Amino acid sequence: MIRSLLKGPYISYSLLNKINKLNTEDKKETIKTWSRLSVILPIMIGHVITTYNGKKHMPIYISDSMVGYKLGEFVSTRIFKTHKKTDHKLKK
Fold first, then answer.
1. Per the confidence metrics, is the pTM higher than 0.85?
2. Residue 80: inside a domain
């Protein structure tokens, strides 16, 4: 479902505070977060945010083309392992 435009984008309060603090101090540090639902805002551009995928934190460098998307869209939670190949020659 789409979030109502009247409500505005969702962003975790603690994540927003961390980004505002780094912007006022002009620092470039990695920010660790578990909030995959937070929307990427223009004030996040240029920062590296490590997002939790269920096993470990994966770093994401935020660029201007990512604005409007959610953090969880850039970190995969599932790993695809190839299907087992059967050898038909041995069966005959």
1. no
2. no
In a domain, 91, yes or no: no
Distances (CA, A) of 39 to 5, 69, 79, 91: 13, 6, 24, 53
Domain that holds residue 25: 13-74
Residues 6+ apart with CB under 8 A from 39: 9, 10, 11, 68, 69, 70
Six-digit token pair at 5? 């435009």
Residue 33 identity (one-letter amino acid):
T
Residues 36-69 pLDDT 10s: 999 999 999 999 999 999 999 999 999 999 999 9
